[in-house]
Amino acid sequence: MHKLVIHRLGPIEHCALECTSFMTLTGFQASGKSTIAKAIYFFRTIKEDIASLAERQALGGVVINGIEDEYYYGSEVSLEEALENALQKKFFSTFGLSGGKVNETYMEYYFTQTCSITIRLKQDEIKCPAHAVPGYLQIIFSDCLRTFLQEKNHCFFATSLGVSREKKNQLNHELYQLFDDDCTVVYIPAGRSMITLLSRQFNYIYATMGDDQKQSLDVCTRDYIERTLRLKPEFSDGIQHVTTHSPGKSLSLFIERGLALNLIKKILKGDYRYNNGEEQILLGDGNYVKLNFASSGQQECVWILNLLFYYLIQKKPVLFIIEEPESHLFPESQKYITELIALVNHCGHSIVLTTHSPYVLGTLNNLLYAYTIPSQYRKKASEIIHAWIWLNYQQFNSWFVKDGTIETCMDDEIHMIQNEKIDEISKVINQDFDQLLDLQSTDEDGVML
Predict the structure, then answer these.
(1) Which of 280, 383, 408, 436 is deepest in the core (most CB within 10 A)?
(2) Residue 183 carries which DSSP code?
């Protein structure tokens, strides 16, 4: 089982957690939920970094704008050195430049008992006229990973047609085994409505941005933008006509697709279509509304729905990292989008979810409880909540992020999220209300009436 450790990074003072198939992170604003989510993204995409760097090495030296202009990721640099350079650039692009006690900042990720990576931020000894260089990274690969990188140095031979697909697939397979991870990572950030609001204009804006401007975006947001721009044409005939690239069409895929489309229609109150460079919500009877004129809830959730559905029918394992899926949604729609995410998890995909919503957490509790229903009641229970949406508590975990650390939200006896964690803010609200009530039952001298 994968394990993540973070120490003194952003608002996180220290946390350590084991990564399960479905993880939720809740807690107060700016408590560090996004820091944990981005750390998972950082480590879980390293296998793609290695594959990309190995291909670039075969194709010759290519300059990549990083912390310094002299960083090269091509044939003159070993694969291990190239990965170290790439991870340094990726770290600062993901988390920004950190100040404070940088010599104490580190992250560790254990993919297996023998495969791990440690990132330590240290103060650089080089001094500028006015200040010290903000910091540099010490990157520590476990022995088996370092050996793998050395063995795969110059592992590709490029022809005029590039590197053969067979060779790339072989390397990917070996990386999946090394990291015990065959998931593509899809990050869906918070604040996505601005990208959707611009809609048609954003294609032009992003296309005209220089490399330096694109690099100024954090790596998770940039990945999301480029992924959605790339996938828009897949929806030219509407979401219902998105085709699968996986071989064959099974009964299970037919059921999954039907359940997903039903939930999407309930959430979106229409169908999505990308038509002649324009994003639209189809309302029926030939009517539609341009996405940038749709409701804020539709704008916030539409690409969560599109990405979940697209990868669901492709039948390739994905780790979805979704920030605040409840944004701008009415509680009923929050329930439906949570059920859609649970359906995707049931179909073999992994989930990391950040949320502030008691409705999301309450829905998750219903799905966890349904899984524990005794066998004699399961048929009737599935008529209330479809069995393919139930959540297996053995593959689920929930964490509360607070005061720089995390604590589990799970009740080990009933295998559900603790109600006191769901209602954490209710305590504060109720305390204020109780104090106001006390004013009416106390005389001027403070004596209870």
Answers:
(1) 280
(2) P
